[in-house]
């Protein structure tokens, strides 16, 4: 990148979200250093444009979109700065992906304490959304494992944040959606593992009550727990599905840990049975991406899951389900998909989700994904977590269903808010400013606006998400 | 009604008027400023997608009618012209009808070429993106007789109708090419299809515009960008009512705009409105020169 960059029209790029359901053009810059980020801020100031930070673009919504503004693409700032295999402490630039990270630390007997369902996300993005994994009830969010980070504020100030130093910014920039400043390096503690394998237990649950009871009851006994919920079938079996719970292997449980921690035994194979390339697998999902097709898939999956069983699986295979089928999101067609994830307290979750699932089936717009997790609250400002559960739903968007789907999600929002629930800013794309205000509460809103004013007095950092939810 | 049944003189007169119709009001000379500080339009979400358009020359005639039509289709629009009053009244009308902030007015003189890139950038930021750009602006100064010449008028027609279009569409084309998406609409005229005795300067400006749009189309189609050339015949705008002679096949402005909207939707390349003009102009284009140069229109 040139030292003095001009704002030219030919770096105007059409950017999309992960679900391919939104497009927004921006002037894209890929800085390679903190100085270059500074320059982009000065340029934005000069031109009267706003700036949004983008990592891997894996948000389902508009978190990394800035229509008509500047996109600060940090994917080129992806160097691992320090790695100490003795202590498990790693320092990285924000564009480092979870894939880079686990492949660095795993052979030395470590694993990122919190990972998302895809390994393509960047650390900067993970911190901005304060992601959780299937171990949220035990390990909290990714922010809880950050020892320190450096950030550049739009004012040009460079700061260091730890849970003690600049603590208010530590707990607000993590979860802050990239709206307070740009994280320029992160120091994180990895988790010690004694084997490259997890012992996974799978068992069926026959209705929603059993589903949530099992998540609640069994979570304390496991390191990870996640549920698949059959969203296509109602009636008595509404909310049925399968629970996967996994534990790390300790001591001699894995006879050959050196072998299982080798990268070769972790990396997801690019071909099925060694011959069939996964890169085109999504094409075979297209015929099923409709109500009838998906009903068949879900029913078959449930029947297959009725057998209770235990198996061992590599960390990568257990965690990165979204990477199994590359480009799976394209199978949803031209309108793409939207994700709706709600977080509900354990007391109210069952009734609220029963109502939502029934509505979705009655209105003929069932979700093609149902994933449940167990959560605990955390101290970050824009937190989505509750002492309860989350349910993630994927809806296919078509030209014909937009109005009805929008109406349904408004009804869902009301149900979730009435039940004391929360939403996740990295996922929901239709959350309104009113809904966000309602679940965040006055105090949080006021505090976030105050911090925004302090860190970014000229409102240089704005994303489409920010304008939608805080605008 | 049949063309052959008309006196050529009458047709000549009405042609002059016709060429003055839409755009006389629109574009000269003004200073560039926004009328007021509009709030940003509502956020686009997957379930409430917003298309965004710019109409250059939106204060009257086809431009204003197209603005109303596109707003009805849910477009968020930047309306450009020099007349603050007209722009404001059209924007208000659109925003009231739709119950939200769908139109934003920008006062602009297309002859101030150097202001275009900055204004374009600002509009795209205000709208939050850009999907469609319609260039309607134009002036027409008929020389007032087939033995009259006026270089100053000719120059202005070229400066507004052609260079003005290039000043806008060149950066827009670069943007769309880079984004690999978008649609450009240029409102030309049947006047560009043949050089006639009546108004050489105007014929040249519209022919130049048509060729420029064709060249953009050939560049941009491979990048997923559509370029539509619109060639209106007689359109019943305020000015046409003052026409001295017959105005054959004249259509209400709403009808012209409907044709344009359909062509935009179908991503067509060239559209005549009314469609009959395709055949009339085909005949005129193929009239041998030894006949055509003896005609008086």
| Broad structural category of chain B | alpha/beta
Strand content of chain A: 15-25%
What is the makeup of the main sheet of chain B? 8 strands, mixed
Tell me the name of the CATH class of the largest domain in chain A: Alpha Beta
Taking all Cα atoms into account, the compactness measure Rg of chain B is: 19 Å
The Cα radius of gyration of chain A reads 22 Å
Structural class of chain A: alpha+beta
Taken from the alpha-carbon principal axes, the silhouette of chain B is globular
Sheet with the most strands, sense and barrel status of chain A: 8 strands, antiparallel
Q: Helices, strands, pairings?
A:
The complex is a heterodimer of chains A (471) and B (297).
Chain A: E1 12-16, E2 23-29, H1 34-47, E3 51-54, E4 70-73, E5 80-84, E6 89-92, H2 98-105, E7 110-111, H3 123-129, H4 136-139, E8 146-152, E9 158-161, H5 167-173, E10 182-189, E11 191-192, E12 197-205, H6 208-218, E13 224-229, E14 241-248, H7 257-260, E15 271-272, E16 276-277, H8 291-305, E17 309-314, H9 315-319, E18 337-345, H10 349-362, E19 370-375, E20 388-396, H11 402-418, E21 422-423, H12 433-440, H13 442-455, H14 464-470
Parallel strand pairs in A: 2-4, 3-4
Antiparallel strand pairs in A: 1-2, 5-6, 6-10, 7-11, 8-9, 8-10, 12-14, 12-17, 13-14, 13-19, 15-16, 18-20, 18-21, 19-20
Chain B: H1 8-20, E1 33-34, E2 52-56, H2 61-72, E3 76-81, H3 84-98, E4 103-107, H4 116-127, E5 132-135, H5 151-179, E6 183-187, H6 200-220, E7 226-232, E8 235-236, E9 251-252, H7 253-265, E10 270-273, H8 276-285, H9 289-292
Parallel strand pairs in B: 2-3, 2-5, 3-4, 5-6, 6-7, 7-10, 8-9
Antiparallel strand pairs in B: 1-4
């Amino acid at each position: 990148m040139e030292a003095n960059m001009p704002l030219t029209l030919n770096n105007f790029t059409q950017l999309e979200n992960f679900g391919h359901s939104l497009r927004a053009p921006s002037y894209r810059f890929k800085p390679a250093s903190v100085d270059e980020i500074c320059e982009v801020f000065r340029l934005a100031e000069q031109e009267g444009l706003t700036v949004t930070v983008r990592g891997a673009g894996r948000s389902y919504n508009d978190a990394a979109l800035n229509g008509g503004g500047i996109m600060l693409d940090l994917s080129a700032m992806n160097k691992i700065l320090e790695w100490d295999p003795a202590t498990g402490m790693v320092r990285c630039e924000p564009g480092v992906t979870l894939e880079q990270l686990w492949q660095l630390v795993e052979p030395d007997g470590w694993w990122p304490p919190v990972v998302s369902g895809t390994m393509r996300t960047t650390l900067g993005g993970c911190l901005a959304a304060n992601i959780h994994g299937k171990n949220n009830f035990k390990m909290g969010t990714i922010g809880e494992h950050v020892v320190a980070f450096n950030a550049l504020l739009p004012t040009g100030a460079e700061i260091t944040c730890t849970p003690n130093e600049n603590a208010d910014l530590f707990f607000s920039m993590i979860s802050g959606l990239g709206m307070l400043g740009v994280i320029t390096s992160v120091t994180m503690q990895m988790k010690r593992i004694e084997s490259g394998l997890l012992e996974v237990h799978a068992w069926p649950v026959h209705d929603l009550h059993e589903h949530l009871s099992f998540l609640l009851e069994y979570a304390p006994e496991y390191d990870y727990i996640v549920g698949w919920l059959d969203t296509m079938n109602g009636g008595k079996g509404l909310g049925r599905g399968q629970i996967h719970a996994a534990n790390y292997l300790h001591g001699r449980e894995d006879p050959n840990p050196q072998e299982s921690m080798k990268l070769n035994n972790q990396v997801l194979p690019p071909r099925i049975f060694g011959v069939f390339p996964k890169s085109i697998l999504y094409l075979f999902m297209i015929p099923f991406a409709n109500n009838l097709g998906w009903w068949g898939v879900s029913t078959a999956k449930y029947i297959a899951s009725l057998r209770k069983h235990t198996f061992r699986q590599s960390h990568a295979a257990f965690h990165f389900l979204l990477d199994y089928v590359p480009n799976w999101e394209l199978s949803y067609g031209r309108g793409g998909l939207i994700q709706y994830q709600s977080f509900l307290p354990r007391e109210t979750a069952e009734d609220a989700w029963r109502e939502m699932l029934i509505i979705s089936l009655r209105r003929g717009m069932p979700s093609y994904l149902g994933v449940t997790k167990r959560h605990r609250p955390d101290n970050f400002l824009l937190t989505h977590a509750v002492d309860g559960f989350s349910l993630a739903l994927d809806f296919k968007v078509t030209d014909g269903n937009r109005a009805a789907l929008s109406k349904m999600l408004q009804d869902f929002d009301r149900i979730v808010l009435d039940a004391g629930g929360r939403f996740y800013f990295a996922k929901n794309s239709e959350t309104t400013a009113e809904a966000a205000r309602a679940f965040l509460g006055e105090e949080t809103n006021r505090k976030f606006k105050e911090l925004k004013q302090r860190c970014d007095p000229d409102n240089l950092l704005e994303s489409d998400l920010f304008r939608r939810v805080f605008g | 009604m049949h063309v052959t049944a008309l006196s050529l003189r009458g047709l000549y007169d009405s042609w002059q008027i016709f060429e003055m119709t839409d755009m006389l009001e629109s574009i000269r000379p003004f200073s560039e400023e926004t009328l007021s500080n509009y709030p940003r339009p509502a956020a686009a979400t997957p379930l409430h997608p917003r298309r965004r358009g710019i109409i250059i020359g939106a204060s009257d005639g086809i431009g204003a009618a197209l603005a109303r039509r596109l707003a009805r289709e849910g477009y968020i629009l930047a309306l450009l012209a020099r007349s603050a009053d007209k722009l404001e009244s059209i924007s208000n009308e659109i925003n009231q009808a739709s119950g939200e902030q769908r139109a934003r007015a920008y006062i602009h003189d297309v002859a101030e070429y150097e202001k275009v890139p900055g204004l374009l950038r600002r509009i795209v930021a205000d709208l939050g993106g850009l999907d469609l750009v319609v260039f309607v602006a134009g002036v027409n100064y008929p020389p007032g007789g087939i033995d009259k010449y006026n270089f100053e008028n000719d120059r202005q027609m070229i400066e507004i109708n052609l260079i003005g279009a290039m000043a806008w569409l060149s950066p827009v084309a670069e943007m769309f090419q880079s984004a690999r998406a978008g649609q450009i609409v240029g409102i030309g005229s049947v006047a560009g299809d043949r050089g006639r005795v009546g108004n050489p300067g105007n014929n040249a400006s519209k022919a130049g515009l048509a060729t420029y749009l064709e060249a953009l189309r050939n560049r941009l189609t491979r990048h997923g960008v559509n370029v539509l050339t619109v060639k209106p015949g007689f359109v019943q705008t305020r000015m046409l009512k003052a026409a001295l002679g017959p105005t054959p096949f004249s259509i209400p402005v709403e009808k012209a705009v409907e044709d344009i909207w359909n062509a935009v939707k179908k991503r067509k390349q060239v559209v005549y409105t009314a469609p009959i003009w395709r055949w009339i102009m085909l005949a005129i284009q193929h009239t041998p020169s030894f006949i055509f140069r003896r005609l008086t229109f």
